[in-house]
Amino acid sequence: MLVYSVAVLVLLCHRTASLAAASKNSFSSFVIHFSLLFADSILLSFMWACSQAFRWRPVRRQEFPHRLPDPDLHEWPALDVFVCIADPRKEPPTSVASTALSMMALDYPAHKLSVYVSDDGGSEVTLFAFMEAARFARYWLPFCREKGIMERSPDAYFASPDRCGDSESQKMKMMFDAMKENVGSAMEKGCVTNDFTVSAEERELFDKWKGFVRNNHPSIIKVLLKSDEDRDITNTPLPNLVYLSREKRPSSPHHFKAGALNVLLRVSGIMSNAPIVLTVDCDMYANDPKSPQRALCYFLDPSLAPKLAFVQFPQHFEGLNKHDIYGGEIRRSFRINSYGLDGLRGPDFVGTNCFHSRHALCGSFSPSSNLTNSKAPYIGFIGSEPTMAQVHDMAACDYELGTKWGSTLGFRYGSLVEDYYTGFRLHCEGWESVFSDPARPAFLGDAPKSLHDSLSQFKRWVVGLFEVAFSRYSPLTFGARNASLAMGLGYGYYAFRGIWCIPILTYALLPQLALVSQRSLFPKASEPRIYLCAYLFLAAYGQDLAEFVMSGGSVARWWSDQRMWMIRGVTSFLFGTIEFALNQAGIPSQGFNVTSKAMEEEQRKRYDNEVFDFGIASPFFILLGTTAILNLASFIAGITRAAVIGIGVLDEMFVHLFLAGFIAANCLPIYEALFFRSDEGKMPRNVTLTSIFLAGLLLYVGGFLFNTY
């Protein structure tokens, strides 16, 4: 850290001196050197300094669940599980139902376990899927216990053909296939018709969707299973299962996922009021049924419990191809950096796989009061008339008006990344968190397997992170004061992630234009200062590679990860920065987008074969194509000039050639899609032509800029 700091300081001093000299020459010379100084200030100073928070005191923990007290002799705290779904077209209801079934099958006392499903898409098919899942649970849960199954999502379990070797497993798979067929048929029809219902009560329930509009409808809450009444086929109590679609009106803000989670907090506070709350994404199923017991190791530790806000498990993804070409596991954010934060005040909340303390989220708030003291507290039985009347009131879209929900209570509003913002605010309030990363992943889910979806997801994150970075709760000021300097820097690294677009674009364009114009911006290969550039590059990349591999990653996946970092720099980070700036200027943008969990068959085949998919005419791909073509053209021009003029060109322009060649090597999948592929995943013709035109335009402008250099 010390040596690298000195190297950065020397480089910045040189850049400053060059800028001072350039200011006496032409305006274009000043612009070029200022751009390099600004890029180095961000890349090698600010962002590097923030990243050191993760390396200061990394911690790895191990739990011993077998030491927990026997739940038959000592009461374990109750557990509420929240599963959120936003769009049934992108989040298939059957897959979401499988996730909920895996949560119901956790190794936890059934009378202490409640699963709540928030359907923000307001889909009757989603409710039907969970009604089918409630019926299937009577067979699936005892099957899991008897077989000792670890993957308790039926979707994941039956994905392997060797799981149906005995008659009982075959029967269970037939039941699950029948359930999927029923839900699939309803999905195709777009509604639940009479032939899908088994009683007049069910028919009456689905009649509520007549005249139903997704963003304009009353709340619908249905208790599908009650632990004190419902039993499985072995006469064992089943966990509570509750479906909820909160009220929505066009005139009332709904605050996206944070709003949905806060409704679940209030409703569950009335129905079950468990002191521990598990939040999971709809595609994240339980891969280890004992994960709640690992969390209890911390919540029942008297030295940790009073100040423990949440226990965060990492996100692990199944179905990634061998080299993870889209960097979908996001290893640095979800694992490596979390070890570092765990040595400070704790990891950040990543939105899923997290066990929360209800007290940390709600404080001394009584779940049945909206802070106006106008209602008497009431904790009722699940499904009773007084309880249902009260929870409908709490799911109303105007319930939070005049309250502190979203500001100091519950999940926090004010950012599209409500998980990051909520964890940050809790840490600033004095709470701590813990990172648990057992050898067997506690949860498994799906990462975006489309390049466009992956880039769009990161763009949304950048917008939400900037909303925190440029608020009065900025990590660099508010966080450093109220948590610690190191925590402020760590959170600041994420909050300002979007500004990576500045150094990445600068180094992807400026040295290449200088190479074509034969204007040197860096020291010659024969000069001693070249060792400074080499050290800064090799030390940064070498440390990144070492940390990636030491955390369990492979070299091939690291290459994909650093390539995606550059790709996001000229797409997600840039467009996210622009969208945030437009939002601040009062110009509306897209807002919240749900990442699709569904894939077309051809798209899946390309992904499995590790072939990049560029089949959409997206502005993302225009910038990628432009950058790739410019670097290839400049590299060819530099090599050609060296072959014609002599070795002196290599000496003078070595760093420029290296940068152009390094970026071109990372762009090989882009060149293939631009010029050589004929499948549907190739770069669309209009994108290719636009990219060629823009690359030519940049070369022309660069020539003019450097001619006056």
From TrEMBL:
GO cellular component, one term: endomembrane system
Origin: domain of life: Eukaryota
GO molecular function: cellulose synthase (UDP-forming) activity
Membrane topology: Multi-pass membrane protein
UniProt-annotated binding residues for Mn(2+): 257, 281
Chief location of this protein within or outside the cell: membrane
PANTHER family given in the database record: X-BOX TRANSCRIPTION FACTOR-RELATED
Protein name: Cellulose synthase-like protein G3
Organism: Ananas comosus
Lineage of the species this protein comes from: Eukaryota, Viridiplantae, Streptophyta, Embryophyta, Tracheophyta
